Amino acid sequence: MIKNKFIAFAFVIVWSSLSTAVRSECNFATGNRISELNNPKAIQRIVIEIPKSRQFQKNFLKILVSRSENIPPKLKKNFKANVTVVYKFGGKCIYRGRVRQNGDWKDHLIVAPNGQPIRSLDVKLKNGNILNAVKFKLLIPYTRNGKNEVLATVLLRAAGYIAPETFEVWTVVNGVWSLMLFQEDARKELLERLGRREGPVFEGDEELIWSYKNFKNWDLEKVSLARLVNRNWFLKGRSSQDIVLRSFSQIQDVYLRFAQNIDRFTSSGFVVLQRNQELFRKYFLDLLAMNGLHAAKVHNRKFYYNVYTESFEPIYYDGNIKFKLFSEEAFLEKQFQGLRAVLPLFENFKYDGITRRISSKENISQEFTKRTTLEARKAKEFVQKSLRKLRENEKRIQGFLEKESKRKRVVHPRKDPYLHFFKLWNKRDLNRLS
Predict the structure, then answer these.
(1) First CA to last CA across the chain, in angstroms?
(2) Which pLDDT band, with edges at 50, 70 and 90, does 381 fall under?
(3) Each residue of 70-86: pLDDT tens digit?
(4) Other beta carbons within 10 Å of 429
(5) Are β-strands 43-49 and 166-173 bridged in parallel, bridged antiparallel, or unpaired?
(6) C-alpha distances out from residue 136 to 166, 371, 431, Å
(7) How many beta carbons lie within 10 A of that of residue 61, not counting itself?
């Protein structure tokens, strides 16, 4: 009896301490502030404190002075961090997490005029979330063209695409202030908020592309395929394993076919899946209209496999979008110059631009205003100017496709550079892969 009472007492103590820890994350009743917690505009700043600040600064300097043109993967080290979200209504929430360097290239690190270091970060919270995001990026704005990225994600979501929550936010990292772009990672929370059931997420595997062992950047592009992002979903059970294996086989086949024709494509790349062709064609042209073909590069591509429709959907990522008019009439010709092999996919394709498919322009302005530091009038002006340029680009694309559909095509014989690539490397070189 005494033993049972002791166990019950210990349980009460532990439960009480856990409850207190959960409650102490925020200094206000979160249930009374649901609307503010879901509004990016309500965040005054995000404060990140890394206890091992000296090692964190050394890591910054090591990346900055490293000889490689890109950020060496081995220097993307994790650091424990305390993350505080300060809200405009006076409340704040404190979370535990980890941070590490984000980005492929060194434009994700800058030394400000006052000598202070600023860097893009990957952030993972161990407890709590910010606008339902547990993992997110804090990006130096110019690495994504700032407000263009914010508007692009608003437009893409309004058109029904999967696009991450993105907004401007003031950030303080170990006392250094900077305006950053908050962008959530493609995870369960993003899928469910946009009405999708959790399922496999794939992306182009960049491990072989950037500073892999003794190879130069891009040396192994022709053998770099795709990888599963949410590996834990595979472990959920027999059903999820079967879904992952079937969808993984399909996406790898697409990447293999791209590798077989890589010399005939532009650097922007192009991936259209057999199922959902119309969706992927629209997505490609929407990116083109927004000057965002950086997101069409195969190593940048992300895909969600919808278990209900048994087909893939694109997930927007890293478009480097800029809302500006095409620079010249020959611009589209240049963009499609290396894509002759896939132009038949657009033959007689009626491109209904994204500006026609969104239901409310006013709603776009409102959603954009929530996510930028601009005051409402200037935010609305930015949206209106951007949409005018976007509509003009859409018209030019449709005109170009109509002209191309009338052109006679020459069918080129298929190559297999994927296998040819391996024949070029002798045994010694291939041993470097292992």
Answers:
(1) 62
(2) very high
(3) 899 899 999 999 999 99
(4) 13
(5) parallel
(6) 10, 15, 37
(7) 12
Q: What is the pLDDT of residue 24?
A: 46
Q: Which of 397, 363, 398 is nearest to 383 (CA)?
A: 363
Q: Given CA atoms 98, 105, 323, 146 in this order, what sign does their dihedral have?
A: positive
Cα–Cα dist 87/74, whole Å = 36
To the nearest 10°, report the CA torsion of 16, 19, 21, 27: -120
pTM for the full predicted model: 0.86
pLDDT at 6 > cutoff 90? no
Coil vs helix vs strand at 151: helix
Mean pLDDT for 25-36 is: 93
Q: Smallest Cα–Cα separation from 252: which of 272, 227, 229, 277?
A: 227
Which tops the pLDDT comparison, 334 or 356?
A: 356
Q: Which helix (H) or strand (E) holds 85?
A: strand 79-87
Q: In terms of Cα–Cα distance, which of 146, 137, 123, 132 is closest to 48?
A: 123
Mean pLDDT across the stretch 263-292?
A: 75
How does DSSP assign 147-166, residue by residue? HHHHHHHHHHHHTT-B---E
Between CA 93 and CA 105 the distance in angstroms is 32
* Identity of the residue numbered 115: G
3-state secondary structure of 254: helix
pLDDT average, residue stretch 207-218: 75
CA–CA separation, 161 vs 357, rounded Å? 12
Six-digit token string for 377: 């009038």
Q: Looking at residue 324, what DSSP letter applies?
A: -
- Residue 422's identity, in one-letter code, is F
DSSP category for residue 411: P
* Pair 206, 314: CB distance under 8 Å: no
- Helix, strand or coil, per DSSP, at residue 208: coil
- Residue 329 scores a pLDDT above 80: no
* CA distance to 61, 264, 285, 337, per residue, from 414 (Å): 47, 10, 25, 18
